[in-house]
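Per reviewer request, we include the raw input and output of the structure prediction for the construct analysed in the revised manuscript.
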Amino acid sequence: MSKLISLKIDGVDVAVPDGTTIFDAAKSVGIDIPHICYDPNLGLPPSSSCRLCVVEVEGAKTLVASCSHPVSEGMVVRTDSDLLRETRRMVLELLLSDHPSDCLSCEKCAQCSLQDYAYRFGVRESGYQGKRVTPQPVLDGPAIVYDPA
């Protein structure tokens, strides 16, 4: 049996097995942390690449990616603050900077985490201009076509 680690997330006492990530510890008590790149239901392992799941950990020098950062005994975590909301807005603007902007024609419209978070954090357009690239479909044999657009 794994040792239990005690910590506080947004003022809530949490006890989870050693090795649990902050993200999963928060989820275990019903605290939602925004995320895009990590989805165990789709088989996407924690990669810390989107940076939307960052949280504040008391004593840490920087924000930490909750999807890959393990809990530690006595840790105090905040998942919502002015700093985190501003950081998430900036991350969303960067993600959207080179993203196709015609959501209404996208097959994922109204079922898209990126779109949901953009609305939630009040990001209507990006203040950053990424390089616009029109990717071409890749024909990978007679039965598979991968369209990165």
